[in-house]
Amino acid sequence: VKLKYAVAIALVLAAVVVGVTSFRKTMTPYVSFAEARRANGLVQVNGVLAGKEYIVREGDQFLRFRLRDSRDEVMEVTYKGVIPGNFDQATSIVAIGSYRGGRFEADQLLVKCPSKYQAEAEQASTS
Amino acid sequence: MIVEGVSIGTLLSWVAFLASLVAGLGFLAATTGRGDALVVARRAFVTQVLAMVGAAVFLWYILFTHQFRYEYVASYSSRAMPGHYVYAAFWGGQEGTFLLWAMFSALLGLLLMRLRHKLVPAAMLFLNIPIVLLLLITVVRGPFLTFAPGKIPVDGQGLNPLLQDPWMTIHPPVLFIGFSSLVVPFALAMAAMVKRDWDGWIKPALPWVVFSTGILATGFTMGGVWAYKVLGWGGFWGWDPVENGSLIPWLSNAALLHGLLIQRVTGSLRRTNFFLAITSYVLVLYASFLTRSGVLADFSVHSFVNLGLNGFLLTFLFAAVVLGYGLLIVRMREMPRAAEPLGNVSRESMMWLGQLVFMLMCALTAVGMSAPLITRLFGPPSNVQISYYTLVNAPLGIAMCLLLGVAPLMRWRKQEAAPLLRSALPAVVAGLAVAVLAVALGVREPLPALFIFSAAFGLTANAIVAVRGFRHGWKHGVAFAGHLGATMLLIGAVASTSYGKSVQVQLPQGEQRNALGMRLRFDGVHAERSGQDAMAIAVTAEGREFQARPRYYWSEFNQGVMKKPHVERFLLHDVYISPLELVGNEGESDALWLAKGETRTVGEWTFTFVDFDRQMGDVIRVAARLRARHADGREVPVRPQVEIAGGGTPNRIPDYLPGGGSVLIAGVDAAQGRVGLEVPGLGRPQAGNILAVEVSTKPLINLVWLGSIIMLGSVFLSVIRRAQEVRPQVARSSAGLATAPGEAQVEGAAGR
After folding, report:
1. Distance between alpha carbon B445 and the CA centroid of its chain, in Å?
2. Cα–Cα distance between B191 and B186 in angstroms, integer?
């Protein structure tokens, strides 16, 4: 076998292996609040914001907020990182993390920023 | 500007659409042998370009004149918007971006049309098809829809302040030029297959492919600068669907670029290059389907709304797939194999492997961004973590850096081992030296260390070859300089994203705190003229004292708090201070009350109230004339104002003291002729406020920017180089086309 083909086959195989394992490893299912409470490992939930506080304690600080899902269920979420812009007015918030000790600890938040596309959402829903 | 209920914009859209149909039929006739149809087709094409430019000008006109009866104007602009952002509302919504996309495709088409090349009529036919489809959207659901009479809003909704950044206003059109430009290699490839001209399309396609590489990368860079400077999470690339959606066509196009270079020299890879030219454009359409259709709505920070165009976008994508790959399959057997196969160990075989790596990156990234769709087939929709993208792309990145380092050291066709080892030695040594340095500085895991080695190897190898090339003229060095920039960027990206330190601290006002070896003291809130209040933080870091001013302010548009980080630049790293939250006593403002002629001192300033200036009318405006004298003897006039319009909340306009600090009117006591003032050092913000911030360092972030600049500069120089190679075939004059914007630019650049 010529060298270039050997290298090419090795590259493709490596990419497939790395791709499949990484895909499995990093996959976070999109679940309901009830499922999130039972789930092990990372999951993502979404809902609308129903109140928030920023907690500042000695040596500790985090954002605590509540999400309400489409079934009107409410879950408490905490988050320590940089709060995404537009958090306050978000139409919906996706929290990626896991449920520990009575609340959902988010590692990452995705905020549906009501950016330029927001106006269309309102139009679409009213028309 | 409305003629019997039809606006000029709609009218021009229709003209453009109909002209594009005529142009399409004309080019079809010309392709199938009726040469005389070409004149009609060209005129129709010019007509549609003019109509589109007219429609664009009209859109800007209604935006700048605030004609809120147009839904689009009301949705994306407002009276209060600063003028230099109003023009950007053009691409604030999807309807506008479709028009923009069509217009750029057509403007680039004008350039292609000027080329005297036998493939051009057929290529114009294929270039015109997407324009017809995009104009169809503009006609049906364009930016010129109006509200019913009586439902016209008084003011528009405005543009999100997050997007009101110079980088963000030019970033979308730059990306759209990039997406549009990919239609040219697609069209030339299709024409070449139709005409069975397997090699003739390469020369005219090459400058376009290089251009697309450069312009899309320019778009990424702008988006990256914006994310870093404005968004505050500290990175410049977030693997968001929108970012991935523009990355995958770029990767495919980069693979095509290298394939064309191989085919030019060796005549091989014909099928591969046709495949890549089609795939690059198909990926543009796939990405715009994913990001515009709403199917990823739950998985992205960008919010997408289904405009009811799903079916349309799918048809568009399907048409490109069937037409493109269908023609390739039909022509596949007729395509003769290359007389000269790729060498085994040679520059072209390394480039061929590089193409493979590009396509693997492209495929794995596409799989990641399509994860919600793929998993939906098997169960509940899931998404991959951001870490997926780094996990899959890091090993491929290592392979890429090694290949782009070793390829320039090789000869075309056949490389002997001994001279290669000799020429690679300095680069290997440099790579090892940098890797050892990185390990000494704290890189512990094998993969990043390997990445740094391979990137440093690639950088050195290309630096050596570039210097050698530049001695023979700039044309012989630019490609290598581009690779040098790319590897530099990668080193900066790995260092700044993986090896920075980060800590969250609380800063009680007036108290000193330590973080990452820096001293920080929060000195309070500074009202800014723009309304974007700054948090004043006195910082001492590595012998430099500076005032950090991250923004933290209430946004009327968002009905929420907006934040913007402070970036302090050092040579080898940035200090990045991102505000998290301001908590504590917001405080009732204690005002400083002054009667006429009275003088009082607060902090370093002594204020004397001279008199009121009143202005009556629809808007009542009261200004307080003051003199402010600083402790050092300077004296300045200060004139804060308050506006009261029709019973609404008063609008307080601050005036500013030299050296920072603002003066605001807190209240007016008309009966006794007194004015209440908010001045620095009094009232809000009160001690007791705590600002929570995240402080981080971004090592070698400057390599990201420097690498980008070197890479982009080189790519655009390469565009000139490749355009010059086509130049003899460009017609000197083409009647009626001299007015096309953008044309003169490329023409001028090519003439240098």
Report:
1. 32
2. 9
Instruction: Evaluate whether A90 touches A113 at the Cβ level (below 8 Å).
Output: yes
- Chain A: residue nearest B169 by CA? A116
Closest CA to B16 of B48, B59, B50: B48
Per-residue pLDDT tens for B457-486? 999 999 999 999 999 999 999 999 999 999
Chain A residue numbers touching B558 (CB-CB < 8 A): 86, 88-89, 114
What are the helix and strand counts (H, E) for chain A? 3, 6
Tokens of B682: 């009094």
User: Out of A19, A42, A82, whose CB is closest to B367?
Assistant: A19
> What's the pTM value of the predicted model, to 2 decimals?
0.83
Shortest CA distance from B346: residue in chain A: A4
Q: Give the span between the Cα atoms of B615 and B623, in whole angstroms.
A: 9
In angstroms, what separates the C-alpha of B151 from chain A's closest C-alpha?
Answer: 13
Search chain A and give the residue with CA nearest B75: A119
Angle at B194 between CA B192 and CA B200, to 5 degrees: 20
Measured CA to CA in angstroms, residue A126 lies from A119, A123, B309, B423, B527 at distances of 11, 5, 17, 68, 38
Chain segment B301-312, per-residue pLDDT in tens: 454 555 567 778
Tell which of B68, B90, B160 to mutate to test the A interface (max A CBs under 10 Å).
B160
DSSP label at A30? B
**Closest residue to B694, CB basis, from A46, A82, A85:** A82
- State residue B298's pLDDT score: 59
Helix (H) or strand (E) holding B202: helix B202-226
The C-alpha atoms of residue B428 and residue B402 are separated, in whole angstroms, by 10
The pLDDT tens digits for B175-224 are 999 999 999 999 999 999 999 999 999 999 999 999 999 999 999 999 99
Q: With cut-offs at 50, 70 and 90, classify the pLDDT of residue B50.
A: very high
Closest CA to B457 of B497, B391, B409, B396: B409
Q: What is d(CA B160, CA B168) in angstroms, rounded to the nearest whole number?
A: 11
H or E element in which residue B576 lies: strand B573-583
Q: What angle do CA B369, B372, B374 make, to 5 degrees?
A: 90
Residue B326 has pLDDT above 90, yes or no: yes
Q: Report the greatest alpha carbon distance in chain B.
A: 99
Does the pLDDT at position B130 exceed 90? yes
The predicted pLDDT at position B82 comes to 80
What is the model's pLDDT at position B297?
Answer: 60
Does B685 sit behind a cis peptide bond, omega within 30 degrees of 0 on the bond before it? yes
Collect all residues with Cβ–Cβ distance below 8 Å to B81 and sequence separation of at least 6.
B89, B156, B158, B159, B164
Rounded-to-integer distance, Cα B580 and Cα B573, Å: 22
Comparing CB atoms, the residue among A11, A19, A120 nearest residue B75 is A120
